[in-house]
Amino acid sequence: MTQFRNIVILTGAGVSAESGIDTFRDGGGLWERHRVDDVATPEAFARDPGLVQRFYDMRRAAIQEKVPNAAHMALARLDQAWPKKGMGRTVTLVTQNVDDLHERAGASVIHMHGEHLKAWCTLCDTRSHWRGPLIDGPPCPACGARALRPDVVWFGEMPYHMDRIHAALRSADLFVSIGTSGAVYPAAGFVQSARDLGARTLELNLEPSQGSRWFHETRLGPASELVPEWVEEMLAG
Ligand code: APR
User: Fold this and answer.
1) Fewest beta carbons less than 10 Å away: which of 39, 174, 179, 219?
2) Is there a domain that residue 11 lies in?
3) 225/148 same-domain check
């Protein structure tokens, strides 16, 4: 594995599952208990802002009680140690998760679907760190308008940082997908892009994802075991 220089890692809900944060599409997952159309679209927010704010207020409160697991810790170790293994080596960690467990473990991460711990003012466009509820319409710290919404990307909205992500994919020689079902684009398409551009592709997941056939290698098991093993392999070489 040590022939690699530039690694792009994509994580999904599976990496946080063992920290006690529900995934979306597993049995009993979030989208079995809530309809996407009720809580995760701009139309839902326009129709019933209270319902949507309450849903995200609960999720925002819940994640603050969770802690990073062995998979987050291992990825942070890789993020910090990999550049030291040779000039010009990079790790780009991209997550679809809106929790903050990667950064609490010590990794720098690109949040393509936004962040639970930020509020976005739809009036002045400022994003503010936010830990409390939004249900009562608190004022934006920047402009005072009562126009804050969760800074998460809903279905039908454009994911964040796509230019940065595509630039990283272009220079990647290894693409690793961890704990994601491969059901949601554009993230689900990263493996094909990386592979077309010549990268090796590896999947670490509890079960084969929808895009499993695009990976050169799939390793099945819990992220808390597979990820530390893989990181050790990378750093040992
Ligand atoms: N270790 C590894 N993988 C796991 C674990 C675990 N402990 N537990 C579950 N998984 C796997 C599941 O097998 C599944 O393939 O994680 C994947 C989770 O899939 P989803 O619930 O679909 O989550 P994700 O792929 O992150 O969803 C993508 O969908 O609703 C949107 O915006 C939301 O970012 C999310 C996006």
Assistant:
1) 219
2) yes
3) no
Q: Is residue 118 part of a domain?
A: no
Are the CB atoms for 56 and 152 separated by under 8 Å?
Answer: yes
Q: Which residues contact 17 (CB under 8 A, 6 or more apart)?
A: 23, 26, 179, 206, 223
In terms of residue numbers, what domain contains 45? 23-65+124-152
- The verdict on 59 and 166 lying in the same domain is no
**Digit-coded pLDDT (tens) for 154-204:** 999 999 999 999 999 999 999 999 999 999 999 999 999 999 999 999 999
Do 10 and 73 fall within a single domain? yes
Pull the structure tokens for residue 216.
């050169």
- The answer to whether 212 and 183 have CB atoms below 8 angstroms apart is no
- Alpha carbon of 199 to ligand 1 centroid (Å): 23
Per the domain annotation, does 77 fall within a domain?
A: yes
Both 140 and 230 in one domain: the answer is no
| pLDDT higher than 90, residue 152 | yes
- Residue 1 is predicted with a pLDDT of 46
Give residues with Cβ within 8 angstroms of 141, minimum separation 6.
126, 128
Active site (annotated) includes residue 113 = yes
Among 55, 56, 155, 181, residue to substitute to test ligand 1 (most atoms within 8 Å of Cβ) = 181
- pLDDT at residue 63 tops 50: yes
Output the domain CATH number for residue 229.
3.40.50.1220
| Closest residue by CA, ligand 1 atom 17 | 180
Q: Domains in the chain: how many in total?
A: 2
**In the predicted structure, residue 2 carries a pLDDT above the cut 80:** no
List residues near ligand 1 (CB under 6 A).
Answer: 12-14, 17-18, 23-26, 29, 96, 113, 179-181, 183-184, 205-207, 209, 222-223
Which one is catalytic: 102, 113, 129, 161? 113
Which atom of ligand 1 is found nearest the CA of 71? 1
Q: What is the chain's Cα-based Rg?
A: 18
